[in-house]
Amino acid sequence: MARKFEGGRLVVASHNPGKVREINDLLRPFRVEAVSAGDLNLPEPEETGVTFAENAILKAKAAAEASGLPALSDDSGLSVNALDGAPGIYSARWAGPGKDFGIAMKRVNTEMVGKDDPRAQFICALCLAWPDGHVEVFERTVDGVISWPPTGTKGFGYDPIFRPEGHTITFGEMEPEKKHAMSHRARAFEQLVDNCFQK
Ligand SMILES: O=P(O)(O)OP(=O)(O)OP(=O)(O)OC[C@H]1O[C@@H](n2cnc3c(O)ncnc32)[C@H](O)[C@@H]1O
Ligand SMILES: [Mg+2]
């Protein structure tokens, strides 16, 4: 049995404004007072894990310890079949110190030249951690294809080059509510809610 979140204040342990916005959207229907790691001036921990789950755990634990509150982290990324899963856990790092996703998306396109498999997945590991060190982790994916050139300005990160399976537009072109109905983050969140939130 997963430990339940009892309600009240919850730290959203991410320094990515796009993610914080999406997580706040997903939390809205629940009795949760979300505060972001940025609001609390929490440091951005170094992501030394070798899996999404490990990095999610280290980010949530760091925020829960530093704040004394339960903390929810998200470690996510794009995994391209033709690139053996890259950029994967390095998705943020491909954008460089300036967090320029124009550069990161171009690199995906350049490395895919000559490969004819466009399939890719977005992956999201969510971790809910408590100040006593207890953690719950949920990981989900969404399948799609890489689409070039980048289109749409509604999302963040790699959204303009990811077209989810069965759809004709990219996540960058999609309304947030529609992305929340199918994304890796929304799917992992559904698991989190089923297991850790009071009904
Ligand atoms: O670690 P935090 O502070 O949460 O913020 P971050 O941006 O560094 O986040 P990650 O370490 O999890 O890196 C994942 C990168 O993958 C990209 N990514 C993850 N989910 C995405 C989504 O739904 N749409 C587009 N890009 C996404 C995004 O650009 C992230 O920067
Ligand atoms: Mg990060």
The largest sheet is: 6 strands, mixed
Total tally of structural domains = 1
Number of helices: 5
The CATH class is identified as: Alpha Beta
Topology at a glance:
Elements: E1 8-12, H1 17-27, E2 32-36, H2 52-67, E3 71-80, H3 101-111, E4 119-129, E5 135-146, E6 162-164, H4 176-179, H5 184-196
Parallel strand pairs: 1-2, 1-3
Antiparallel strand pairs: 3-4, 4-5, 5-6
The site of inosine 5'-triphosphate has 23 residues, from strand 3.
Keywords: Hydrolase, Magnesium, Metal-binding, Nucleotide metabolism, Nucleotide-binding
Catalytic activity: ITP + H2O = IMP + diphosphate + H(+); XTP + H2O = XMP + diphosphate + H(+); dITP + H2O = dIMP + diphosphate + H(+)
Binding site for Mg(2+): 46, 75
What does it look like?
- This protein is of the alpha/beta class and 199 residues long.
- The chain has one domain: Maf protein (Alpha-Beta Complex), CATH 3.90.950.
- The chain is 28% helix and 23% strand.
- The protein contains five helices and six strands.
- Strands 2-1-3-4-5-6 form a six-stranded mixed beta sheet.
- The longest helix has 16 residues, at 52-67.
- The model has no long low-confidence stretch (mean pLDDT 97).
- Inosine 5'-triphosphate (ITT) is lined by residues 14-16, 19, 44, 47, 59, 74-77, 91-92, 101, 122, 155-159, 171, 183, 185.
- Magnesium ion binds at residues 47, 92.
